[in-house]
Predict the structure of Ribosomal protein S12 methylthiotransferase accessory factor.
Amino acid sequence: MRALTPDRSKVRLPGTDRASDAAATLAMARAAAPHVGITRVADITRLDTIGIPTFQAIRPASRTLAVSQGKGVTADLARLSAMMEAIELWHAEQPMAPAAIAPPCAVAPGYDVRSLPSLTPNLLHDRLPMEWARATSLTDGSSTLVPLETVQFTLVRRSGWSAPALMSSTNGLASGNTVVEATLHALYEIIERDAVTTMITEGGRGTRVDPATLGSPVVDELCELIERAAVRLEVRWLPSPTGLPCLLARVSCDDYPISFMGYGCHLSSEIALTRAVTEAAQARLAYISGARDDLHADAHQDAGARRRDTSAGQAEPAEPIAAMTARPSLAEDLEEVVRRAAAAFRHDPLAVDLTRPEIGVPVVRVVAPGSRVRPEVF
């Protein structure tokens, strides 16, 4: 992985922090689009009554999902989000030559491979031959190896038989204007999904919070759009061992009683909440549009029971949201988040740089031994 040179720039945009403004990032994404198979980008915002900007980027020849979605406070940010998701997916789909083929006991990567998200059931053991990719510790820059199946992601069937072992997903895959920005977003996603997985597996609900207490004009505008559409919004603070703001947003209404959830994690409470709320609206639009490849066929079953469960949550008192802020630069943000993640998961987060010079968009996969992710949710 290339050295993480200090990235002292930060452009504060509505609901996000970036290394460049939306126009510059959009120009980068548009230049990459034909090379990764994006044939069109669609604005699906007005298929719903809420009005939170949501876009889809279409890749007909995708080896995973042909439709990538993006959301944002503005149309440009949503368009950009969809395109960048499609671009990062393309990078994960590409064939990768293993740096080594050996069992964990021979590689000695410095962590227990069983601390990585695994399949259930699995045949993982210390003498199982595995393919490996080179990775870099985000704590001290040292080199190590990670299983290739935690880096690559494709739905193309492989020839022959391989032992079921580790989970392959998009968890910890992110793109950005710089390697620092991409790495930071990837790590946020891992922390967010660890918090959500803990909530689900332990039967928790998190703490109901009131978004109005944050005093954020951006959040208030999103909440106003939801209220104007006669949609209910429930927000919950999820505990994370990192101590970072991890928030869940749930939306539902009488006309479309399925409850849809979105999640967000960030050093900034405002950005974490913005991500959760916009993602909930995006999830709802995914089913309204019907274009995604990964929609659940049983999503509309027991809609009445889900509505009753959501209504019960509305009666619960809501607490103020703890206001936390990000650092002055993305490099400082990353340093802080890496420190928290390493302490929480008891191992250094590891990064694999997937950037391809011919595409021109930084893409990173972060693998965090000790973190958890639930396959059926993510």
User: Anything to note?
Assistant: The CA atoms of residues 258 and 300 lie 7 Å apart. The domain at 14-94 is CATH 3.30.160 (Double Stranded RNA Binding Domain).
